[in-house]
Amino acid sequence: MLTGIHVAFIGGDARQLEVIKRCIQLDASVTLVGFDNLESNFTGATKRPLTCDVLKDVDALILPIVGTDDQGFVESIFCSKPLQLLDQHVESLPKHCVVYTGMAKTYLKNLLASKQIPLVELLDRDDVAIYNSIPTVEGALMMAIQNTDITIHGSQSIVLGLGRTGLSMARALHALGARVRVGARRQEHLARIYEMGLTPFPISELKQQVTNADFIFNTVPQLILTAEIIAQMPQSAFILDLASKPGGTDFRYAEKRGIKALLAPGLPGIVAPKTAGQILAQTLSRLIAEQRITRGEST
Ligand code: NAP
């Protein structure tokens, strides 16, 4: 339970609603900042404007997945007024407060570090990244189906990277009957791909591997599908780049060659906002409860 814990939310999207629901269910005291246009009224949560006073006794401050932009503006689909997290807001947080977000930009990192307020980036965590790979893969399959005229079953599918997303992607394609090859640079990853019954290849051989590809799913957050590699692909190949912006594909060259290549960021929030929110809610409620234990309080 989170009885006696004050959790404040600043901005967010549909995912945040699941987190708010969970915190209320666990008996936290909940303050919502930047939710003015939210229609469903959460009983047990108070809507407030962004002021220093609101933040002065907050134990956990929850920001949206993207945190803030480079000027401190926080996005909220539930509020039309701009929300800007400034120095004075962070200054007013108690020293024991922990700030949670998905991924923080330099502005937020510097702002919190200057006041010694701890920051937790949820998308950095293996557990969150692995759970998130489930809606990501479902979204990737949806896009592959929508953008091609062939089945995934029987296709020549290439996955680049065997990290948390690449592994789930490769496994789902295999289960659908695709002929799956996975490119990786670490020997243990190549061994794991083999163990999974898939075809491994070192990334250095990518140029030879793409000549008959139907689908290429990239999870490597580096420019890997260069013009030189794309030049070897059949024109019917479909590239779905899952890596964070700007992706790992030379999109300009792909377009020039007439190869369909799409960058697909933020799939969990797009295809399954409720599940994506529940993933965050589950992890956040545990972390906030642990935060209290670290401070020597019991539940
Ligand atoms: P991850 O676990 O770190 O996996 C990344 C993979 O890329 C690892 O296998 C890594 O190999 C490999 N890699 C990195 N640099 C490389 C290079 N220069 N050459 C060859 N391989 C390289 O990350 P993840 O959680 O799977 O996420 C992958 C990307 O997808 C990230 O950019 C993430 O932000 C993004 N993402 C997007 C969505 C979406 O909705 N589109 C959802 C979740 C994640 P090593 O282990 O050898 O370093």
Automatic annotation (TrEMBL):
InterPro entries: D-isomer_DH_NAD-bd, Dipicolinic_acid_synth_A, DpaA_N, NAD(P)-bd_dom_sf. Pfam families: 2-Hacid_dh_C, DpaA_N. Transmembrane segments: none annotated. Gene3D superfamilies: NAD(P)-binding Rossmann-like Domain (3.40.50.720). GO terms for molecular function: NAD binding. Residues 151-242 form the D-isomer specific 2-hydroxyacid dehydrogenase NAD-binding domain. SUPFAM superfamilies: NAD(P)-binding Rossmann-fold domains. Residues 6-122 form the Dipicolinate synthase subunit A N-terminal domain. NCBIfam families: PRK08306.1, spore_dpaA. This is Dipicolinate synthase subunit DpsA.
